């Protein structure tokens, strides 16, 4: 008959082509065998079938009615973002000096026995300033920096994006947009983490005028302070040096002021090379150029660590945001992460340098949840394409296994040198515990004793998140395994119950399940850190109990900034998570509102690669075929 009817419409109508009515008079074009065209006037002649079947018609329809894809203004914003970063690098970033200069000999103005070698406020990997003859020359490195740099790069650029690619029609976009977001984030993170050091020096120099801690009149007299005016002395008898977190900040502030004077006086640098070297170390700078930022493996790793919370937040929003919105997410997430890190670590004195359970994982998860609450289209969780399939779930599981393999390197990079091996081993044991306990809990929580691939992909690495706190430094092997197991169980519990509650009651959807993978296990690590810091007392911190409880000696002066032994370290750790969650929620809401102002994806375009990519023909047909039952397929035949 020339018409393929389905639901009262012809194939031509279903493909968007108008079909004339039976009474219409029009000129029809008919091609003959030789390719010539003959015009036939007369009554309507039904056209020959255009397609062999409805599947071919659907493919043709989707080709000529493609989704909008990237807008021109979006591409301009993306190019502008990269141009902005390029300008910053061109104006301020310089390569770090290689090879490093040897540790200097004392100058005519140095007094080696009187130099105040206060601890730097910036975190450094072991061996960073390992000069021959330096005070830290006896520190060793578990790995060369390049090896760690590559493994952490695999963790960020390969493992995490691959673990996001479980959606059945969004695998192209999940991995590609994660890579794109990470590339923007690391470039900006390298700059922001050095600006944090500059900002902290400004904060510290303000304390020289008005300290924000209580100080007695007797202490004022001994420290030559009058009306809260601290007289800086970077060289003085060491028995006059007073310790304590607040006083240590004043001593660090003196080195910030000293750096400024050295930067403006080359003669002073030549006369006091030891003081100049320590001023660089304390302030986190590599030279005495005022407007310069350095670039080395250590700076790139700093950028990589600032990229992880961005990708964690990205996981909440996978499939629901356009690339230009991801750029907004990257810039605002890095700025918020840097600010939170400054508040928690630099200002409060929290220790979170073995994986960042609080400042990285908890922050990234809650920032993403706040952002999706305002930026994601409502009802996105009920989209038929918001689910995985057999092949894509296998790829995502493989990404999780790569995270598993690289997690010990990620957690141990910034650990103190004597504890690097213990941190790597404890992380390894925690991953073993979470893999077994998480999958066991998955079967129990399912209600019918069957495993869930969602839990396999996430609970297997939740132990690494849970061991990313100060507990990693002092946990015994059985304790590390237990903490990892608790993280795995919490991950499975969250996936089965808390995630469902957020969707059904709050209409807040977490695409990848990063709250299960990072948020709740991060809280387990936070609580574990408080638990291990509570019993610390002066005897332990002074080293009297080191040999009894630990097989290695920890330099507590470089680990804990609050170390009176009166519970102050545990209290600061207790405050760190609520502070981080508050900052993450506020900044996440702001980022979501900004992203929503830029653009909003239509509901029908969510979770589909065809929105932004040219896709193969079977993209439109394979999934529809897979959803049909055997009876439907037989009826179709």
Can you tell me about this structure?
- With 637 residues, the protein is mostly helical.
- The chain has helices at residues 11-14, 54-64, 72-92, 145-163, 171-207, 217-222, 245-263, 266-271, 273-283, 297-317, 323-347, 357-375, 390-412, 420-446, 453-466, 471-474, 477-506, 514-533, 538-542, 546-549, 556-559, 568-598, 618-627, 630-636; strands spanning 28-31, 37-40, 93-95, 293-295.
- A two-stranded antiparallel ribbon has the order 1-2.
- The protein starts with 10 loop residues before the first helix and ends with a helix.
What is the secondary structure topology, with strand pairs?
Layout (H helix, E strand, L loop, with lengths): L10 H4 L13 E4 L5 E4 L13 H11 L7 H21 E3 L49 H19 L7 H37 L9 H6 L22 H19 L2 H6 L1 H11 L9 E3 L1 H21 L5 H25 L9 H19 L14 H23 L7 H27 L6 H14 L4 H4 L2 H30 L7 H20 L4 H5 L3 H4 L6 H4 L8 H31 L19 H10 L2 H7 L1
Parallel strand pairs: 3-4
Antiparallel strand pairs: 1-2
Helix pairs in contact: 4-5, 4-10, 4-13, 5-7, 5-10, 5-11, 7-9, 10-11, 10-12, 11-12, 11-22, 12-18, 12-22, 13-14, 13-15, 14-15, 14-17, 15-17, 15-18, 17-18, 18-22
Per the principal axes of the C-alpha atoms, what is the gross shape? globular
- Average pLDDT metric: 82
Residue share in helix: 55-70%
Note the beta-strand portion: under 5%
Strand arrangement across the biggest beta sheet? 1-2
Helix count equals 24
Structural class comes to mainly alpha
Major sheet summary line? 2 strands, antiparallel
Instruction: Flag low-confidence runs.
Output: 1-41, 624-630, 632-637
* N to C succession of SSEs: HEEHHEHHHHHHEHHHHHHHHHHHHHHH
Rg over CA atoms, rounded to whole Å, is 30 Å
Total beta-strand segments = 4
Please give the alpha-carbon distance between the first and last residues. Answer: 20 Å
């Amino acid at each position: 008959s020339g018409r393929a009817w389905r639901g009262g419409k012809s194939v031509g109508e279903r493909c968007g082509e108008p079909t004339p009515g039976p009474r219409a008079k029009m000129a029809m074009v008919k091609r003959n065998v030789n390719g010539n065209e003959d015009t036939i006037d007369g009554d309507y002649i039904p056209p020959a079938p255009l397609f062999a079947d409805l599947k071919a018609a659907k493919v043709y329809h989707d080709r000529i009615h493609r989704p909008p894809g990237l807008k021109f203004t979006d591409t301009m914003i993306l190019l502008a973002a990269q141009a902005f970063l390029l300008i910053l690098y061109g104006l301020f970033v310089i390569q770090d000096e290689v090879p490093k200069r040897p540790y200097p000999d004392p100058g005519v103005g140095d007094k080696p026995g009187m130099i105040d070698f206060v601890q730097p406020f910036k975190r450094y990997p072991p061996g960073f300033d390992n000069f021959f003859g330096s005070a830290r020359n006896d520190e060793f490195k578990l790995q060369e920096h390049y090896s760690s740099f590559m493994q952490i790069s695999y963790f960020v650029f390969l493992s995490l994006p691959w673990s996001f690619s479980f959606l059945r029609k969004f695998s192209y976009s999940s991995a590609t947009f994660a890579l794109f977001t990470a590339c923007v984030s690391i470039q900006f993170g390298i700059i922001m983490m050095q600006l944090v050091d500059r900002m902290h020096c400004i904060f510290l120099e303000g304390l020289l005028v008005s300290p924000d801690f209580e100080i007695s009149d007797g202490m004022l007299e001994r420290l030559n302070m009058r009306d809260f005016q601290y007289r800086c002395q970077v060289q003085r008898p060491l028995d006059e040096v007073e310790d304590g977190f607040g006083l240590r900040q004043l001593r660090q502030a003196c080195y910030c002021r000293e750096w400024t004077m050295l930067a403006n006086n080359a003669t002073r640098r030549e006369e006091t090379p030891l003081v100049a070297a320590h001023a660089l170390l304390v302030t986190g700078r590599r030279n005495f150029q005022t407007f310069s930022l350095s670039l080395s493996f250590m700076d790139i790793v700093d950028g990589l660590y600032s990229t992880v919370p961005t990708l964690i937040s990205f996981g909440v929003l996978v499939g629901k945001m356009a690339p230009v919105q991801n750029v907004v997410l990257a810039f605002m997430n890095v700025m918020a992460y840097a600010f939170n890190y400054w508040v928690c670590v630099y200002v409060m004195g929290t220790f979170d340098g073995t994986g960042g359970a609080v400042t990285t994982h908890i922050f990234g998860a809650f920032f993403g949840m706040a952002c999706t609450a305002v930026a994601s289209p409502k009802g996105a969780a009920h989209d038929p394409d918001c689910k995985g399939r057999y092949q894509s779930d296998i790829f995502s599981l493989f990404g999780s296994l790569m995270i598993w393999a690289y997690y010990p390197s990620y957690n141990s990079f910034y650990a103190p040198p004597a504890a690097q091996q213990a941190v790597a081993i404890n992380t390894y044991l925690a991953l073993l515990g979470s893999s077994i306990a998480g999958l066991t809990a998955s079967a129990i929580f399912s209600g019918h004793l069957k495993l869930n691939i969602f839990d396999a992909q996430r609970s297997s690495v939740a132990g690494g998140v849970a061991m990313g706190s100060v507990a990693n430094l002092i946990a015994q092997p059985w304790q590390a395994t237990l903490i990892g197991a608790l993280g795995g169980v919490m991950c499975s519990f969250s996936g089965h119950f808390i995630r469902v509650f957020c969707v059904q009651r709050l209409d807040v959807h977490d695409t990848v399940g990063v709250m299960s993978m990072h948020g709740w296990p991060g809280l387990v690590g936070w609580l574990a850190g408080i638990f291990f810091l509570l019993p610390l007392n002066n005897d332990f911190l002074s080293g009297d109990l080191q040999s009894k409880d630990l097989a290695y000696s920890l330099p507590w002066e470089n680990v804990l900034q609050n170390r009176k032994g009166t519970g102050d370290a545990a209290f600061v750790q207790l405050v760190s998570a609520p502070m981080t969650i508050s900052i993450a929620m506020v900044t996440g809401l702001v980022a979501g509102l900004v992203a929503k102002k830029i653009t909003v994806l239509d509901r029908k375009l969510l979770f589909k690669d065809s929105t932004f990519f040219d896709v193969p023909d079977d993209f439109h047909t394979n999934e529809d075929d897979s959803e049909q039952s055997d009876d439907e397929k037989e009826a179709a035949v």
